[in-house]
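Final report, Chapter 2: Outcomes

The project's central promise was a pipeline that accepts a single protein chain and returns its three-dimensional structure in a standardized token representation, suitable for archiving and comparison. That pipeline is now operational. To close this chapter, we reproduce one record exactly as it appears in the project archive, with the input sequence first and the structure output second.
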Amino acid sequence: MKKSLILSLFLMFSGLLQAQVKAELNAVLQNDAKTYALSDLGFNAKLLHLDKDVSKPVVAEEVVKKSPRTLEEVLASSKRSNLKYHLIAGCFSTIENANRLVSDLSRKGYPSEIVAKNEKGLFMVSYLTFTSEDAALESLQDLKEQGKSTWISIR
């Protein structure tokens, strides 16, 4: 009698367990079916929720305001604001020679500095540096009138 009671309890428990496993498996298979259905739609298809009303749009379209300026105008204005105009006193292949000219010009009252290396690898030494093109052109003319050889480098 004990064996039959244990056996009947076991069968009842396994039946409940089987029903629960079967329900969970069906839920997983339904979700997988939705996933496969969505992937079969192809790359250009809209994302659909198969269990919802598809007549309503899933994503609202955003309104994008366009600027009246072109991309070139925007980039040009941002570049101009960061530009510096350097009046170049000389270019040197060695840093020692460039530093020597910086020292000489500093003694003469110019806020001289090594600006950068140019495309040929030469160290460029400036007399003066400006953020305004007009001021740089005016100073360029003054230096040329003093007999100094100079030109403007924009960086």
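Archive annotation: The chain has a mean pLDDT of 76.
This record, like all others produced under the grant, will remain available to the consortium after the project formally closes.
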